[in-house]
Amino acid sequence: MNGHACDDDPEFVAELFELLEEGVVLHDSNGRVRACNAAAARMLAWPAFGDQGAHSLFAEIEATLESGEPLTREDEPTRRVLATGVAHEARVRVRRADGETAWLLVKSVPLRRARREGGVRSGALGGALTVLRDMTEHMLVEERVRGQLPADSFSELAGSIAHDFSHFLTVIVGYSDLIAVSLPPTDPVREQAEHIRAAATGAARLTGELVDFARRQRHSANEADVSRTLQEMQPMLARLLGPRIRLSLDLDPSATVVRADPIQLERAIFNLALNARDAMRAGGSLRVVTHAVTIDEEFVRTHPGAQPGAFVRLVVADEGAGMTEETRRRLFEPFFTTKPPGQGTGLGLATVWGIVKQFGGYIDVDSAPGRGAEFRIDLPAVSLGSGEASSVRPAEKG
C-alpha cells in the first residue's frame, strides 16, 4: 500500500475509523466535537454519529474521577490538553442515562497544525484527539483481586489476562500501523496514529510483566545462599540506588543457605531495592541485614501465614517518607500502587510476596509516616552455621 492510498479512498479511512474498538473523538481548538466513531458514541451514550458540536464529552452523563470526586469540565483530559498543549489521561467512572455504569480510560493528545509546503509544522494547536478505552472489566477484576482473590492465586489470573490482552494489542498495533502508512508524512493524523501505536506498545510491556509475574510463581524450591547473593548483587544495587542513597550490608555468617530459587531471591531483593529507591527521592540510607531466627508458636498465633521453625531473616530498611496504615495493609496487593498513573504497575511488591510465599516464607513490613519502612522476610533455613539463632516473639522487630 503506498503512502497516498487514502487520498483516493476516503471511505477506506472512514471504515478503519469505525473498526477501532477504542472510542476516538476529534475536537477543534475550542474543544467542540467535530467527529467521533461509533465506539465513542456507544461508550458515551450519544445518539448516532455522535454529539457534533458538543463542548464536553460528559455533559449528559454523571462522571467521577477514580478518587470519587466529580469530574469537572476543567478536569476533562481534552480541556487540560487544550489549555496546556500536553497529553493528559484519566480514569473516569460514568453513569449513563440508561443507568449503566462503566469505567473509561480517557486519553487526549494535542493536534498541531502543519503547513503543507514542505511539511514544516507551525506548532499551532489546532485541536485534540481523545481516545476512550472501556476499562470496566479491568476495574472489576482489580476490585476482586483486592477484595477476594488470594494473592497466591494471582499467577493463574495474570497469565489468563495477558494471553487475552495480547490479542487486543495485536489489533490495535496493526490498525494504527495501517492508518500511519496510509497517510502522507505531513498529515497530522499520522502522528496521532503513531501515538496510539506507542500506547499499545506500552501496554504490551505491561502484558510482558504480567506473563513474567505468572511464571515467577512456578519455580521449584532449590537452595540459595543469601549472603553470597547479596554480596554479588551489591555493585548492581549501588548503581540502581544512585549516588544519593547509601547502601550498607550487615550479613550474619551463620545465616546463609535458605530453601529458595536463587534467581527468584535476586528478583525479590531487586524489587525491594527499587521500592526503597522510589521512597527516597531526596536520598538517604538503605540498610540490608541478615540473621538467623527461630519462629515459635506464640509468634505464629499472632502472625497469620507464619510457620514455626528455623529461618534466615532478611531485613531491608529505608529512610523514606514511610506510609500510612491503610497503605501498609494493601502494600502487597496486585495492582496497588501509590505512584501517579503510568509510573507504576503495582506488581513489584506483589511479586515479592508471591516469591516469599512460594518457598514457605513470611513477609511483613513495619512503617509509619515520617519514619521510613522496614521489610522483614523470613525464608526457611536449610542449614545454620555455628552461631545461635534468636527466638522470635510477637513484640520483636527486625
The CATH class of the largest domain, by name, is: Alpha Beta
Strand content: 25-35%
Number of helices: 11
**CATH homologous superfamily identity of the largest domain:** PAS domain
CATH fold title of the largest domain: Beta-Lactamase
Averaging pLDDT over every residue, what do you get? 77
Q: Characterize the overall form.
A: elongated
Oligomer: single chain
Largest sheet: 8 strands, mixed
- The helix/strand order is HEEHEHEEEHHHEHEEHEHEHHEEE
The low-pLDDT segments are 1-7, 116-121, 145-152, 385-389, 393-397
Could you please describe the fold and organization of this structure?
It is a single chain. The protein has helices at residues 10-19, 38-43, 77-84, 136-147, 154-181, 188-216, 226-241, 262-279, 297-302, 325-330, 348-358, and strands at residues 23-28, 33-36, 62-65, 88-95, 101-114, 121-134, 223-225, 245-251, 255-259, 284-295, 309-318, 362-367, 373-384, 390-392. The protein has 398 residues and is α+β, with helices and mostly antiparallel strands. It has two domains: 5-216, PAS domain (Beta-Lactamase, 2-Layer Sandwich), CATH 3.30.450; 223-392, 2-Layer Sandwich (Heat Shock Protein 90). The chain is elongated, with a radius of gyration of 26 Å. The strands form two sheets. Strands 7, 8, 9, 10, 11, 12, 13 and 14 form an eight-stranded mixed sheet that branches. Strands 2-1-6-5-4-3 form a six-stranded antiparallel sheet, with helices on both faces. Helices cover 38% and strands 27% of the residues. Mean pLDDT is 77; it is low at 1-7, 116-121, 145-152, 385-389 and 393-397. GO terms for molecular function: ATP binding; phosphorelay sensor kinase activity. Residues 160-383 form the Histidine kinase domain. Keywords: ATP-binding, Kinase, Nucleotide-binding, Phosphoprotein, Transferase, Two-component regulatory system. It catalyses: ATP + protein L-histidine = ADP + protein N-phospho-L-histidine.
